[in-house]
Amino acid sequence: MDRPAALDENDARWRTAGDRIQTLLDACAASGPAAHERASELVREVVGLYGAGLRRIVAACDAGLTERLAADDLVASLLLVHGLHPHDVRRRVSDALERVRPYLGSHGGDVDLLEIDGGTVRLAFTGSCKSCPSSAVTLELAVEDAIRAAAPEVSSIEVVTAEPAAVIPAESLLARVRPGGPSATAWHPAPELAGLRPGEVAGFGIADTAMLACRVDGQTFAYRDRCPVCDDSLAGARLRGALLACPRCHTRFDVVHAGAAAKGVHLEPLPLLTRDGVPSVALPVALGAPA
């Protein structure tokens, strides 16, 4: 059964509640250490009270109900805060990777979970579109976001490369897509993308960025609205199967495989994931997204 739109909007609002609470605490700090400590103590008391209530609720639930509660992103985040989530970190990381695996496959890639050592997750990416750097960043961002949401206790993510055999810290791989990096990103809800019909192409403006989305074989793909061949808009483009033809230079792009074209060029894919039941697009802050 589909969830009401109002519920999805509330989920998106509560997802950022932690940031708003921290902003309020920082504002209290301007009134001096005593005011900040009182505000912090108030937050701790409220969190503790709700934690005690959640603990009693979980204790009264059978295994099936607990599983259903843990499947809800918002409830799962609260269970994690209070140490009440029924799944260990390996199970949660594995489930997170399963959720994004179809998306990785759409960009010609996959990921394997090698091990979890303390707070470090080690992964191996396979089969990614090596001729498409923007696609590689898209895959990294999708995996990073999924793991951080499912297992906030993870302190670092390392990607093991095949040649040479070495470990690359996620801090260097993902510097372009993490908040505060040279090209920080922000997620923007785009509920209108859920209404795309099979074979449909539609243009959208999100955070002052022009993009287009295509629906192929039950999946939605998002790209920046710019043809890399003629450097013009793709407005008016149509799909033939998985091929999107530029209405001006007539170059055909495979939207299922990172927007690749026969001429060795490709469209610029935009990270598109379902967050709290709402399709969301990640855009660089430098291109107009709010920090």
UniProtKB/TrEMBL annotation:
<dbReference type="GO" id="GO:0005506">
    <property type="term" value="F:iron ion binding"/>
</dbReference>
<dbReference type="GO" id="GO:0016705">
    <property type="term" value="F:oxidoreductase activity, acting on paired donors, with incorporation or reduction of molecular oxygen"/>
</dbReference>
<keyword id="KW-0001">2Fe-2S</keyword>
<feature type="domain" description="Rieske">
    <location>
        <begin position="187"/>
        <end position="281"/>
    </location>
</feature>
<keyword id="KW-0408">Iron</keyword>
<dbReference type="GO" id="GO:0004497">
    <property type="term" value="F:monooxygenase activity"/>
</dbReference>
<dbReference type="GO" id="GO:0016226">
    <property type="term" value="P:iron-sulfur cluster assembly"/>
</dbReference>
<dbReference type="InterPro" id="IPR034904">
    <property type="entry name" value="FSCA_dom_sf"/>
</dbReference>
<dbReference type="GO" id="GO:0051537">
    <property type="term" value="F:2 iron, 2 sulfur cluster binding"/>
</dbReference>
<dbReference type="Pfam" id="PF01106">
    <property type="entry name" value="NifU"/>
</dbReference>
<keyword id="KW-0411">Iron-sulfur</keyword>
<keyword id="KW-0479">Metal-binding</keyword>
<protein>
    <recommendedName>
        <fullName>Rieske domain-containing protein</fullName>
    </recommendedName>
</protein>
<dbReference type="InterPro" id="IPR017941">
    <property type="entry name" value="Rieske_2Fe-2S"/>
</dbReference>
<dbReference type="InterPro" id="IPR001075">
    <property type="entry name" value="NIF_FeS_clus_asmbl_NifU_C"/>
</dbReference>
<comment type="function">
    <text>May be involved in the formation or repair of [Fe-S] clusters present in iron-sulfur proteins.</text>
</comment>
<dbReference type="InterPro" id="IPR036922">
    <property type="entry name" value="Rieske_2Fe-2S_sf"/>
</dbReference>
